[in-house]
Amino acid sequence: MKLKCFLSIVFAFTIFSFQLFAQDNIYKDVVYLKTGIVLEGIIFEQIPNQSIKIETNDHIIHFIKIDEIEKITKEKVVSETSKVRYTNLTQLSVGKKPFDELSQGVLFGIETINGIAFNPYVSLGFGIGANDYTNVALMMPVFLDLRFTFNNQNIAPYLALDFGYSSSFDKYYGGGGMFNLSFGLKIKTAPRSAIIAGVGLLLQNYSEQQSLHFSTSTYSVDEVQLYGNFNIGFVF
Q: What three-state secondary structure class fits 178?
């Protein structure tokens, strides 16, 4: 049931983001005159077999007689924001186990994510990093990052889903699966770069080698740790 609920949420966010992407499919009127001049804009008045009025991109209104026109077409407006492009996100994170009064469960991490931005709203990337769990071990997560941005304004909310596997650098601890859900704000500093700041919840599975009392034999115990975390980073 929980898996179905999670998949439904992911599907809903994906559909929502691609609907926003569809809004970038804008068309313009293009008028080719017999003199060789080309006017691009919006035709807002047309009298059959007589004349048209078009407002061009520079907000100038042109009155044109039909016998001056060679052809009229509609063409897609191609903007930089509608192109698929490479993206990188590098961020720092600090976290803590909830309800840990002794403050032993602390996390310090750094990660970099390289991927593809399909449009201003959806990106998919491959990430690698280093997470130092002070009460466990230093681990290296390798994961997929699915990211949704909810508008194309200078300040926009985002939601990110990370899932993958963390390898341990400590011989007494084994690696395990990881999942991170985070949300926050993306603040543009330039058309293709931004600062992000957010909070999230990280689930990390790992195994711990423990020894039997009065024996050299060891056994493995699987555990799951939950961390609340704060992230800040730079994306371009």
A: strand
In angstroms, what CA-CA distances link 101 with 98, 104, 106, 107, 221?
A: 8, 8, 11, 15, 24
Lowest mean pLDDT among 50-54, 115-119, 134-138, 216-220: 216-220
For 17, 117, 201, the CA distances from 147, given in Å and listed in that order, are: 10, 9, 15
CATH class of segment(s) 27-77: mainly beta
Other residues' Cβ atoms within 10 Å of the Cβ of residue 47: 10
Q: Can you give the residue ranges of every domain in the chain?
A: 27-77, 81-235
Please write the tens of the pLDDT for every residue from 63-89.
Answer: 999 999 999 998 877 655 557 888 999
Fold adopted by 81-235: Porin (2.40.160)
The secondary structure of residue 9, as a DSSP letter, is: H
CA angle 11, 81, 18 (to 5 degrees): 15
Q: How far apart are the first and last CA of the chain?
A: 37
Please state whether 103 falls in left (phi above 0), alpha (psi between -120 and 50) or beta: left
Helix (H, G, I), strand (E, B), or coil: what is residue 181? strand
pLDDT tens digits, one per residue of 28-57 = 899 999 998 999 888 999 898 899 999 988
Distance CA 69, CA 209 (A): 81
